Amino acid sequence: MDNGYLDQLVDAIQSKTNLLARGGLTKTGIKTPPGTDILDLSTISGIREYNPSEYTFTALAGTRLKDIHRMLSENNQFLPFDPPLVKNGATLGGTVASNLSGPMRYHFGGVRDFILGVKFLNGQGQLIKSGGKVVKNAAGFDIPKLMVGSLGSLGTLIEFSFKVFPRPREFITAISRFENLHDALDNLVKLTSTPFEILCLDLAPIDNDYQVEIRMGGNANLFQDRITHLGQQLDIESTLQGEQETKFWNGLNEFNWVPEGANLVKVPLIPKYVSSLDDFLAQHQAVRRYSAGVNVVWIAWSGSMDSLDQKLKELNLMGLSILGSTDRVRVGSWNGSVFYDKIKDALDPSGVWVKV
Amino acid sequence: MANKDFFARLHTIYPQDRLLTNKGQLITYQSDASTSYQVIPLAVVLPETQEEVINTVKVCHEFRIPFVARGSGTSLSGGSLPVSGGIVIAMNRLNKIINVNAENRIAVVEAGVVNIDVSLAAASHGLYYAPDPSSQLICTIGGNLAFNSGGAHCLKYGMTSNHILGIKAVLPDGEVINLGGESLENVGPDLVGMYVGSEGLFGIALEVTLRLLPKPEAFRTVLAAFNSVEAAGEAVSMVIAAGLLPAAMEIMDNLAIQAAEASVQAGYPLDAVGLLIVELDGETSIVESDFEALLDVIEESGAYEIRVAEDSEQRANIWKGRKSAFSAVGRISQDYLVQDGVVPRSLLSKALREIGDLASEYGIKVANVFHAGDGNLHPLILFDGRDMENLEKAENLAGEILQMCIELGGSITGEHGIGVEKLKYLPVMFSDLDIGMMQAIREKFDPFELSNQGKMLPSKMISD
User: Fold this and answer.
1) Does A3 score more than 70 pLDDT?
2) ipTM of the predicted structure?
3) CB 3.0 to 4.6 Å from B323: which of A186, B126, B134, B232, for a disulfide?
4) Which of A149, A197, A269 is the closest to B282 by Cβ?
5) Which among A274, A247, A104 is positioned nearest to A188, based on CA atoms?
């Protein structure tokens, strides 16, 4: 790490307010508020440590995910939370700050389930360490988890330690199609209670149908039996393997399905909200995908953000703009402000960091 | 200091039989599972509703009386030790399982619900609650949440924090908050993650939304005996290097084996110097395929005896011995301290050798049980506490072990938390600045340090 640049960051923190760190600028929907000074962290990059036998690594915030992927794949390891926008240049810091996980988080877990430690600059420009570098640690407040999704509002994230897993050797995806949402959702929900080891479980309206996409991984010699077994649970229309399969999921994770000009909004939810929300989204002709076993919906929204905001508030859901030109970063309702405000006050008493 | 008005106010919340002030009643609560520490509380209250807990916290806040929430008192770090001049809020009667929602794979429970009861309630839906601390037959969800409890199956399934989706809690000033929700995903900072493992410093969790998982279809549980603990540790490295991710990997040394056998007669080989338990679970075809690979590795590792559980009863027996290990040492020692340090997995053998050397130096027996898959050691330091000098020696040895864990790049606690027991070692792991930052956060919520005072962070209210 260039200590000269770190000193510059500290100077900026100690002399200014309304600061926001940015990395790869891949999350175009997370707008920098007007009058904000940007701290460019893209140059604070590099792997500090990697222990393949420990399944851990430590890297600086500006490190590109594609560099991390390359390093891990040499040892048949990977980032289990399957972060999106890798090809677009997403950084580790941006991924943590925006809490973006991809479809495989369904099985393995999200960013927060793999972060072990963090170093960050607080509102006084002091470098604070929290967590550690070992896979199990119960010492002190879990500030590494706190920083996940914090959008840079609690400090400038400088360095992270993460746990990783062995990468599944091969993948196969089964596709089922249903004429209506109810049947698709019903079948998907039933799958979530079965012991099938499903890595990705997505649902999307495609043409006039609803498509359920089931990704499995591991030993390819077992795929035929596993698919046959899965086929006893629901009708499988087709399967994908090899390059075609990889391309399918990689494309989804770069959000290649989002129409030009639409805002991409991430909304955490669970199956019980789908019926009401999907009617609304369908009426507004919003392209959407339900991912991670319907624990999140990605909405390509071209309508009024006020309208989406109102609907989400009605359902007590919250959304975050990830891509697009809207100035509305958050929509919907959030229950965390009392707890968050006290923490923000402690970590950033002078209000150095912009609350996005 | 509490005064008559404080008790008068408590009496408006509790009938006499749920407001304990008689010394004979209070002694029951003077300690938790870390029995080296005893403090008799001012009073113990036994709420039966969330409303009673909230009102108690408000009264404590008004009168500046410290309080400690207590589940089943299974903390191994003094986490639910009473505070002198404070009260204990016993949470066991808040034990309603409010809802098990199989479609959404969640359970909503009150904080006093016993860990195993969640899985029992979810079983008919083919679901279960994964975190399995060894005390799961009696420990409560609230306690698990406060200390981010682990257990043998952390390796594959993570800690308590990975299974909590939402929390309803009362803050130290009496304000009730809700954090998180029902989804695995989240927008905004992970406030649930921040609350879990905060050791009661942010008030008391009242109601928790838990993530449920489908029950594994198949299990393969293997027990392997080695002529050394190092060989058992090496076997663990070989399993990991083979790309396998077992649900659990545990090691016990001979002293721990002897104690476990004396206690529960699990049928462990008594001459094993190191015993390794490995469990695979999941989809049948994957488990069977991984099992073949696992057996190859274990055979290559030099185990002199390998047993495979043939049915659920044999599986339960293998685990019975391991899960009873802590309490079992009571048969071979008057007292014990259990430590909870973590080292990088690849340095386990080195750490064990150093523990052995330290134990010889101190002339103290140490039984070792540990979560080998994630480097989490549990050295059980055996001593006779009837002589206070022995306790001091044991504590010094424990301190050196924790120091060693940090020097090897690990942590002073993997799952038991700091509590009271490891307070003095916090500066070994964190700088004054890091600790100061945690203090600053705590102060925003509880400037009077009423909630679990003197745990996790040094208290300015308690003189040395």
Assistant:
1) no
2) 0.95
3) B134
4) A197
5) A274
